[in-house]
Amino acid sequence: MKVIFFIFPLVAFLCLNCTLALGSALENENDSSSPKAMSSSQKQHTQETGEILTNLSQKEREWYQKFQDGLMFFSGWKEISENILKALPPDERHLTEQLLENMGVRIGTEWSKHNDIRRIDTGQLRSWGDRLRKARKKGETHLSQTVKAISAEVDELLSRPRHPGEINNS
Fold first, then answer.
1. Which of 93, 74, 79, 75 has its CA nearest to residue 144?
2. Which side of the chain, N or C, has fewer Cβ within a 10 Å radius?
């Protein structure tokens, strides 16, 4: 039974990455944006993220890292976010980047929790991945709107009280 609890989250994580990574192969790799110095808000975000992660167990931190970095042959949230940003016009990237970073922390920390208590399940990851992939095909405006809509869904899900055993772990 423990194997099933390990395999289902892994499969959903991989499905999310597959659906988003397919479109990235078609993107122009010569992005004109260059790395820049970390702003004070980025430093604060990094510090807050570190504090959030200290509240996770070792096992949850491992799942969180897999969500963020990906696995062999599969993209993680960081790469997915980069591909979304590349599909947006330069003037929308900064705010969307902050939103994606926040979403990645919130989704990753919640999804990394044990199946019985988490409020974000593998089915949601799959659904969000499908929606982002479809939105990307429809254009930058639709993609931007979809990112914002998913962010609002994450906020709503995480505002709910935690009820063990209520999540569908499909």
1. 93
2. N
Q: What is the pLDDT of residues 90-103, one digit of tens each?
A: 999 999 999 999 99
Q: If 0-12 CB within 10 Å is exposed, 13-18 middle and 19+ buried, where does residue 41 land? A: exposed
Distance CA 147, CA 130 (A): 12
Domain boundaries, the chain: 2-25+60-159
How far apart (Å, rounded) are the C-alpha atoms in residues 15 and 128?
A: 10
Closest CA to 99 of 114, 81, 76: 81
CA dist 89 and 5 (Å) reads 40
Taking the model in full, what pTM does it have?
0.70
Give the chain as a DSSP string.
Answer: -HHHHHHHHHHHHHHHHHHHHHHHTTS-S-------PPPHHHHHHHHHHHHHHHTS-HHHHHHHHHHHHEETTEE-HHHHHHHHHHTS-HHHHHHHHHHHHHHHHHHHHHHTS-TTT-SS-HHHHHHHHHHHHHHHHH-HHHHHHHHHHHHHHHHHHHHSPP-TT-S---
